[in-house]
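User: Last request for today: this protein with flavin-adenine dinucleotide, please.
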Amino acid sequence: MVSFTIPPDIREDRRKVSEFMKEHVYPNEAALTREDDASEALMKELQAKVKAIGMWAPFIGPEAGGSGRGFLPYAYINEIIGRSPFAQRVFGCQAPDTGNAEILLLYGTPEQKQRWLMPLVAGEMRSFFSMTEPEVSGADPTGLQARAVRDGDDWVINGHKWFSSSALESNFGIVMANADPEAQPHRRFSMIIVPTETPGVDIARAVPVMGHTGRGWTTHCEIYYRDVRVPVTNTLGNVGDGFVIAQKRLGPGRIHHCMRWLGQMQRAFEMMCSYALKRHAFGGPLADKQTVQNWIADSVAEIQAARLLTLHAAHKIDEGLDPRVEISIIKFFGAKVLHDVIDRAIQVHGALGVTEDTPLSSMYRNARGARILDGPDEVHRFVVARRVLRVFREGGVWEFE
Ligand SMILES: Cc1cc2nc3c(=O)[nH]c(=O)nc-3n(C[C@H](O)[C@H](O)[C@H](O)COP(=O)(O)OP(=O)(O)OC[C@H]3O[C@@H](n4cnc5c(N)ncnc54)[C@H](O)[C@@H]3O)c2cc1C
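Assistant: Here's the final one, the structure of the complex with flavin-adenine dinucleotide:
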């Protein structure tokens, strides 16, 4: 069972990360928000500092060049890194590179690991994951239309994708395409590594999301693949393994998101409490109004619940137990808590809450997307209910453990 005591070595890592955040990340957030050449240079400077304190890439183990020691230790550290949207990149543990690195480690050939995984984890490359298509439902990816056709020793890929996050200025993508239309629906798709500079890869635009277009890592791109030719040796795993690998990728990827969200919700919560104490209306601080107190009480309870659910899922992964239900629970529950806590914090801040003068508005944009990305809330509820009902259908009861 998960221990509620944080082990001393992880406590020490948390202290190191917290100090780094206070000294180097929060004071530079305004500069990093500008997303210009100067902010990219600053990002590189901060990344070098993280490497110097031995906290680089804590999501993955030393065999891939990271400093990770398992999911649970990472959950405790990522909760602090997640407080700032920029810190994931500063610490070398940003989506979608983390998920891509994990599947390259699990399924990559020695050559793929050398060429793509090691530079990715080292922060010398960036990547994207290209699955969702505008024309068909992303929640039900059996209908994806992108095709990969074998031609000698090459794949020739044609397709239209969007929401390929971070594709702009990246080095390679992992593209999901139908390589065998005659196979069973779940065996039709393959994941293929495509260098971004390959002829025929056309990044048509960074899709603006709630008013934000971004640059490089912060973009969500629409991409056309037109007769894109890559060697068959760029296939990740076996032909037809696309869905199996996607599950492997999205499982840990989802929990990485949930850990970061804990940091975001805690930061929004702290801002809400501090502001409620200092802002006065109708003869006293907002903190004295019962509605605000209810928001604070609900938030503290929901954040702690999301936290314990996340730690429990991380523990199950570390123990090699099946974490499918736990991951789906924290995906929909965590995203909702994130959204609601930030929403309340904005409300307490009044007009200030919707300006760019605090991080709350950009946090809110990300929180809204969180309820859709990596599978909409509704699909995760459906996964949980289906699994629970199966137990009852077979004459059992759902055991809470
Ligand atoms: C910020 C952001 C970043 C993203 N990054 C990436 C990325 O890097 N790579 C990538 O490939 N994709 C990415 N995506 C896409 C994301 O994975 C898809 O948006 C998601 O899978 C949903 O697919 P869809 O948008 O096609 O919605 P649809 O599948 O069309 O679903 C629309 C709505 O229908 C409802 N719905 C669907 N199924 C059910 C059901 N079974 N029961 C009840 N209701 C249901 C839900 O409310 C859902 O929101 C990103 C999305 C966002 C918002």
